[in-house]
Design brief:
- Pfam families: DUF4817.
- The protein has ten helices and eight strands.
- The chain is of the alpha/beta class.
- The strands form three sheets. It has a four-stranded mixed beta sheet with strand order 7-6-3-8, covered by helices on one side.
- Strand 6 and strand 7 (205-212) form a beta hairpin.
- Helix 1 (5-17) crosses helix 2 and helix 3 (41-54) crosses helix 4.
- The chain is elongated.
């Protein structure tokens, strides 16, 4: 019985856990995946031999045809095992560990339908953030029911901070897998950074950016709201400024007493 790529993946992982003991691997696989077809020790041996001899987990159904021959390397099993065990390793690292060339490693991985997926960066969320976001969605839906163009009058703004050692380089981060694992890494963008920047968007207009000197505190943010932001908004039509809502993400400087007092006085109509 032919197995799928996902089954072959799990079979190789189980075989590695059992230190290539085919009988133990067959038993463990059946226990771990009771809803699947249970493969015999012979099937595990056949899979291991095929990977070792052809570099592929699937049978060759194109015998006799003029096709590109797969990599026939004794290192194929080592390369696949390394990629499955440490999917974040680079092809260069796998090549060094397996004693193969990088070109051979890439051919083995590609012929086995493995793809180097890129990491996705996302903002780290706390436990309370989920409920707050849901409440905001309900509130936003009500506003849009009243005015479909409501969000064109919102000044969306945020403070971005940049470390002296730079951001994560996604170009050099890969995750080898048969299927996209949607690999993400939580990043923290608001503490202990060396350069703070503010920027806003309202409608189709970009407001700013503005660079803060030193750390962003309640005092520096209050100064910005009173003395810098009005100048940045000078290019907006008066009717837009009168209807404008100000969006903030609730960073600590936004809660300073002077900041909240200024916002209540300036945006009293909007609450």
């Amino acid at each position: 019985m032919a197995y799928t790529s996902a089954e072959a993946f799990d079979m190789l992982m189980v075989l590695g856990e059992c230190y290539q003991n085919f009988t133990a691997a067959a038993t463990l696989y059946a226990e771990r995946f009771p809803e699947r077809h249970h493969y015999s020790r012979k099937a595990f041996r056949t899979l291991a031999d095929r990977v070792r001899e052809t570099g592929s987990v699937h049978c060759n159904h194109n015998k006799g045809k003029q096709i590109a021959r797969p990599v026939r390397s004794e290192k194929s099993a080592d390369v696949l095992a390394a990629a499955l065990q440490n999917p974040q390793d680079s092809s260069r690292r796998i090549a060094v560990d397996s004693g193969s060339s990088q070109a051979t490693v890439l051919r083995i991985l590609h012929e086995n339908k493995m793809h180097p997926y890129k990491i996705s960066l996302h903002q780290e969320l706390s436990e309370d953030d989920y409920l707050q976001r849901m409440n905001f969605c309900f509130w936003a839906r009500e506003r849009m029911n009243e005015d479909p163009d409501f969000f064109n009058d919102v000044l969306w703004c945020d403070e971005a901070t940049f470390r002296s050692n730079g951001e994560v380089n996604r170009h050099n981060m890969r995750y080898w897998s048969y299927e996209n694992p949607h690999w993400m890494r939580a990043v923290d963008n608001q503490r202990y950074w060396t350069l703070n920047t503010w920027c806003g968007i309202i409608g189709n207009r970009i407001i700013g950016p503005h660079f803060f000197e030193g750390n962003l505190t309640g005092d520096t943010y209050n100064y910005f709201l009173n003395n810098v932001l009005p100048n940045l908004l000078m290019g907006l039509p008066n009717e837009v400024r009168q209807r404008m809502w100000l969006q903030q993400d609730g960073a600590p400087p936004h809660y300073a007493i002077a900041v909240r007092k200024h916002l209540m006085n300036s945006f009293l109509i909007n609450g």
